[in-house]
Design a protein that fits this description.
The chain is mainly α. It is about 65% helix and about 0% strand. It has a domain at about 90-205. Helix 3 (about 55-70) packs antiparallel against helix 7 (about 160-190), helix 6 (about 145-155) runs antiparallel to helix 7 (about 160-190) and helix 7 packs antiparallel against helix 8 (about 190-200).
């Protein structure tokens, strides 16, 4: 009796195909749906980043003020008659510039002590609650009020203080600070919520 050998290729095709498991398929589809939902939630919660950072926006406003001064195209009435700054204006301006530079250097040292970075998009990842952050949540930005005050004293015009400064801080309040607060809230949870409830955004409000 001759034994017929079935070719291996035929044996491979002749193996019974596994039947699909309906319950397993449903579980896989549910996992895929949950994964997609998770990606959708993470995309919706992703913090939008502004294209213009606060230092650049501050520089834009300062350059705009210089252009106004060079062209004489002011939007608001002058605070004093057209004349050179008084000696008192110069003294106050020098003191304010010195206070601005010293305060910024001090703030940089605070960030360095906590191994944080004061640069936008990075320093918001770390929660610092030491002074002056125990008084205001954004003291680093609050110092940017001083350059506008200095230019108001030197130029005798209201535009730097009453026009450019409000626009700059409106940019911070609408575009920058909320994005940083969302990052801090996601990173630190209840700890940041407690801190935010205790300390105001700008100290007084």
């Amino acid at each position: 009796m001759v034994q017929q050998n079935t070719p291996k290729s035929y044996q491979a095709y002749a193996k019974p195909m596994p039947m699909p498991n309906p319950s397993k398929s449903r579980l896989q589809r549910a996992d895929v749906a949950m994964t997609r939902q998770g990606y959708a939630e993470s995309d919706s919660e992703r913090t939008p980043e502004v294209r213009v950072t606060p230092p650049r926006m501050l520089l834009i406003h300062l350059l705009a003020i210089l252009v106004q001064w060079a062209s004489g195209a002011w939007c608001l009435p002058p605070l004093r008659p057209a004349s050179s700054p008084t000696p008192l204006d110069w003294v106050l301006s020098v003191l304010l510039v010195a206070a601005f530079v010293a305060s910024k250097r001090w703030m940089f040292s605070i960030f360095a002590r906590h191994r944080a970075s004061p640069m936008f998009k990075e320093h918001a990842k770390n929660l610092i609650t030491d002074f002056p952050f125990s008084v205001a949540r954004n003291p680093f930005y609050a110092l940017d009020f001083l350059p506008f005050l200095v230019l108001t004293l030197l130029l005798g015009m209201a535009d730097p203080l009453l026009l450019h400064a409000p626009l700059f801080f409106l940019f911070l309040a609408v575009c920058v600070v909320p994005a940083e607060e969302r990052r801090l809230r996601r990173a630190h949870g209840a700890t940041y919520q407690t801190y935010a409830a205790r300390v105001r955004r700008w100290g007084l409000f």
